[in-house]
Design brief:
about 220 residues, binds pyridoxal-5'-phosphate, 9 helices
């Protein structure tokens, strides 16, 4: 089976964007965001060799991937309620939406109980949007320190979702700056509309949904 053209196109654009700014394309991984996609859209991308997928809801992800997750890396990229920490720790390989003390505590408790540690990203609300998850930039350093000191987390990196109607570049630059001053090397930033910009600003993973799978149904 040949790879779906939209998927191949995104993979090629990632490589070109990396090369254009002197980066190794292997430094940038694609998280294919399969949320709200029918299995007919996901299956060909899986068959083409994609192994890293992103989901924004715990329940929906478990329904889609349970029994199929062998050899895959599944990222939770949506907001997480602390009462779902148990499922999230059991199911996901990476949790990208750590953004508050209560959630950190719930995750730490589950990590201890289950002896399983997902890789963790702190989400930063770079645009300080009230409706959006994420710690605000002014509180990021303190929260990162708390995660490390109080909960013993070995954080992997930072994640952001820039405001929809603003140039994304300054938000990516801000995330990179917060990461650098906190000794974090991984940056999850960039979606369908702006992943090439994100790569220019140092993204190490881009979360791309509609450009890979087509418009979402829900
Ligand atoms: C849905 C979603 C994406 C993918 O968005 P597209 O514009 O379809 O690429 C990326 N990141 C997060 C956090 C999302 O919720």
């Amino acid at each position: 089976m040949t790879a779906p053209p939209a998927y191949s196109d995104v993979v090629a654009r990632i490589a070109r964007a990396a090369q254009a700014c002197g980066r190794d394309p292997a430094e940038v991984s694609l998280v294919a965001v399969s949320k709200q996609q029918p299995w007919e859209a996901v299956e060909p991308v899986l068959a083409a060799g994609q192994r890293v997928f992103g989901e924004n809801r715990v329940q929906e992800a478990m329904a889609r991937w349970d029994g199929k997750a062998d050899g895959l890396t599944l990222h939770l990229i949506g907001p997480l309620q602390s009462n779902k920490a148990k499922e999230a720790v059991a199911f996901f390989d990476v949790i990208e939406s750590l953004d508050r003390d209560k959630l950190a505590r719930a995750l730490a408790e589950q990590v201890q109980k289950q002896g399983r540690t997902p890789r963790l990203y702190v989400q930063v609300n770079t645009g300080e949007e009230p409706q959006k998850a994420g710690v605000i930039p002014a509180e990021a350093d303190a929260f990162i320190a708390t995660c490390r000191k109080d909960y013993g987390f070995e954080l992997e990196g930072l994640m952001c979702i820039p405001p929809a109607h603003e140039p994304a570049g300054p938000h990516f630059a801000l995330l990179a700056k917060v990461a650098q001053r906190n000794g974090l090397s991984k940056l999850s930033m960039g979606m369908s509309d702006d992943f090439e910009t994100a790569i220019r600003f140092g993204a190490t993973s881009v979360r791309v949904g509609s450009a890979v799978f087509g418009a979402r149904s829900g």
